[in-house]
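Hi R.,

Here's the chain you asked about this morning:
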Amino acid sequence: MRLNFQVGDLAATRIVVSPLPHAIFAAFSVHHPELTEKGSIWRDIARTVPRRTLPLLDILNRGASRVTLHDGLVASEVAPPIQTAALSDELDALAALDTPPQEREFGGDLWRFSGLPGRPDLDMDPARFRRALADSMYVLFHRFLAPEWPGMRRRLEARLATYQETAARIGLGSALSTLSPRLSWDGSGMIVAGGPDRTIDLGGRGLLIHPIVGASPRYLGIATTQDRRSSVLTVPIPDSGRQAMPSPAFDSLAALVGRARARVMRAVGGPGCRTDELAGRLKVSASTASEHVTVLRNAGLISTRRNGQAVHHHLTALGARLLEANG
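And here is the predicted structure, written out as tokens:
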């Protein structure tokens, strides 16, 4: 595969730190764990999500996103609407969301959408289809990725700084070839090793490049578009920050309640804590911490008591037994 760069394509090419490609990659990694690093968060997700659920990748295919896999290269003919660094903005662009989706609508079955295969109305109504797709990504991100995102963002921003230094030293085109061992620059275009025999003209819109933390060095994603949006290139970067921390081979508590909820239960365990303290321990926003607490409280695993202006969260007896039994 060759990507032709016209006049202005290099100037229009940029690296963007974004959560949406990571949410998409999370769904993809469930069925292709071989394209993720061992010990990465993607392997945890692949173990936790039930295999019987309808894969999000299939839903993307049902939405006319023609996806092919070539020895680790993922090629799609529909680029997602990734133009900003905020998940909410990206989901708004995808489906014009007006209210946050409710996790209970999915019953923990993230990719089934209450029987989507038997719901031809969703297939026929593009707006409803995109809304269901955006809702699933919201749930997926906040259930699995939100607690890890601050650390992932720091590694992404460090990779961006390294790329900018390299581009200043050897030029923009040559710097692109340093993003993946599958990429090489020939002076007027980029050669993608291992891809289909085709040439893609970027049309002066350049590329949006998204590094994916913890993807295998074999992985490379290309999503092209025929409209006015830029094509998207996703490239791997090592998950060195997470690999440096030992983790159990299997987290049984995460398998029961989800990885993010398991972290919340462990953070609340013992004497309990306030919402702001919980957010600080998890390194997430107070609203995200409150959302996790609400889900666990509705499940009978956390209780909340108000003392004046302060709100304290504690594990219930059931939550404490679950934590003790599963670590």
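One quick note: The first strand starts at residue 2 and ends at 4.

Cheers,
M.
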